From TrEMBL:
Domain Thioredoxin-like fold: 116-151
Domain of life: Bacteria
Pfam families recorded: Thioredoxin_3 (PF13192)
SUPFAM superfamilies: Thioredoxin-like
Name this protein carries in UniProt: Thioredoxin family protein
Native source species: Anaerotalea alkaliphila
InterPro entries to which the protein is assigned, alphabetical: Thioredoxin-like_fold, Thioredoxin-like_sf
Length: 155
């Protein structure tokens, strides 16, 4: 059985919740032999995963604190750019997540600076996607095509 872990906040923030939901739905749709679970970034297991990568698990707020920067979640540019998000080809089993995808897209846009600086700051930034012990993505919601490709490798 494949083991898929999403490391995130507890309770799960919108980004962590969406990544967990999308991966779970895709695993089900692809009929993969995989366990999907969400774990808090502060858990012993998450700390061990981050430590293997030479990092400490954390959030955008942790990156911001280390860089002495402010997190601005009210950036209007992200909302204007939402028009470029095209969900018309969204798979039917993911349609119920469309509104959450829009919210997460805005959050990811607003937190992109911190995602790009996370490793430099020594942080494995949530959300983190780990498949069979390998960190595949961190700091944002990866594209649906990337998630599909990673999961296809498990077939």
């Amino acid at each position: 059985m494949n083991r898929i872990v999403i490391i995130g906040t507890q309770p799960a923030c919108p980004r962590c919740r969406l990544l967990t939901a999308v991966v779970s739905e895709k695993v089900k749709d692809m009929e993969l032999d995989a366990e999907v679970r969400h774990m808090a970034y502060s858990s012993e297991e998450a700390v061990a995963i981050a430590k293997k990568a030479g990092l400490t698990p954390g959030t955008a707020k942790d990156v911001a604190r280390i860089l002495d920067r402010k997190v601005d979640l009210h950036d209007k540019e992200a909302e204007r750019d939402l028009e470029t998000l095209d969900l018309t080809g969204l798979e039917p089993h993911l349609q119920p997540l469309a509104q959450l995808m829009r919210e997460v897209w805005i959050l990811d846009h607003r937190l992109r600076f911190f995602e790009n600086k996370a490793q430099e700051a020594g942080i494995l930034m949530t959300p983190v996607l780990v498949v069979n012990g390998k960190i595949l993505h961190q700091g944002s919601m990866p594209g649906l095509d990337k998630i599909g490709a990673w999961l296809s490798e498990l077939l």
